[in-house]
């Protein structure tokens, strides 16, 4: 589904942050992306999300070379990818329900067609009684769950999550992990960038370890 | 990749949570009506609205003033060029009354002269009253007498022919066609209107720039919304449309407020000149500006300014949003441009 070949990236004239990355993300796969702070996990997620161009190498996303994809087509491809940002990126004037429904709204769907699905998902992430609450009054963990719900509401083909359990307690982290696994079971490839070793120990999944710009993969 | 056939419902838990099952079912909360994607009002939007209102007010005021001065200048020119004067200087042995009548008849015999009237003794005395006082005896003084000829503006007489005919019939007569005055007034009116248009274009330029910068400033506060929408898969025209409609409304609201304030100012000035008629202040103002009325064309101009400012705000918003999206996709995705 996604293929990296000899991908390298440097910011400006600085040193290479990522070097000779060659790997693929198969369909329906589940993997953790880990490594020390500053290793380039977020940068790699941005490359996967097509919000950053590599300095060298080839990236194929959904069988398309991203160097040749016209800008107008990027949003359409991004609709097939759900992303959970480390800083959540929720819209402060929209309620929990409205934030989660946003991807469906921008696709031009009627509220009546997705209301039940959004409520069901919010119940599952434990926010069923917070649907009309604005992000300002949500805790960090609740915001995290809203961001996750927004990323998966349209059942993406690929889910990218940057430290998705960084702001929740262990039981909720486990609960969210189960959600990701269930999503994966239904066909979504999942990439979770995390430092949380205890979380990784819960699942026998592929591990991608970034260190000093290089990537080691343990299947 | 093959199309997936799973049902569109969101993921459900593989295993029910026993802790949650113990709790009684909670009543389903009502979802509030969907809020607009762009927040309806915030400080920057209100500030933008006020800035647009002020600039629209100034632009409408300038347009109205230019229109008034232009109308007044045309009116002066028209009033003065509508009449010519025949002046007869008293000389020894001249029968003034007969000369006046001859001059009047001569003027009327020329095609293009609509009417002619002799300024009588009483009117002449009143004209000279400021210099000679109330009881001046005009017969004792060598005072020139006047014949006022009204001309057909659409078919003016041949002034040279009239002058020649008068020289034959009344050699003491002097024809004043006010050409010097009219020429000066035309020049002054043109200069005034050119200055007015220059000021108007400056105000318009300032309005356009203010609207552009204020709109861009207000959009800066909403930049994160553009980013989030773009990253959840919204296409550029969709994002641009959300902001464009929102800012078009702000622009029109501000411009309507400014336009109405300007129209009310002109209406109030008009009422004031009505109340203060025949006072020295009012007379001075009326002499310079005419009536404080901007007329149908003026109000049409105010409407045009409102429409232009609204469209300008919407256009600026659209271009700014599209540029922001371009920056996200092109500039910020290029690592060589970052340090």
TrEMBL record, chain A:
The chain positions of domain ABC transporter read: 2-217
- Classify the protein's membrane topology as the record does: Peripheral membrane protein
Please give the name of this protein.
Cell division ATP-binding protein FtsE
GO CC list: plasma membrane
- Compartment annotation: Cell inner membrane; Cell membrane
Alphabetical list of InterPro entries matching this protein: AAA+_ATPase, ABC_transporter-like_ATP-bd, ABC_transporter-like_CS, ABC_transpr_LolD-like, Cell_div_FtsE, MacB-like_ATP-bd, P-loop_NTPase
Which NCBIfam families does this chain map to?
FtsE
This molecule's function is given as: Part of the ABC transporter FtsEX involved in cellular division. Important for assembly or stability of the septal ring.
Q: Does the keyword Disulfide bond apply?
A: no
List GO molecular-function terms, semicolon-separated. Answer: ATP binding; ATP hydrolysis activity; transmembrane transporter activity
Supply the CDD domains for this chain. ABC_MJ0796_LolCDE_FtsE (cd03255)
The entry assigns this protein to a family as follows: Belongs to the ABC transporter superfamily.
Question: Which PROSITE patterns has this protein been placed in?
Answer: ABC_TRANSPORTER_1, ABC_TRANSPORTER_2
Q: Mostly located where?
A: membrane
The UniProt keyword set, sorted, is: ATP-binding, Cell cycle, Cell division, Cell membrane, Membrane, Nucleotide-binding, Transport
> For this chain's UniProt record, which GO biological process terms are given?
cell division
Binding partners and assembly: Homodimer. Forms a membrane-associated complex with FtsX.
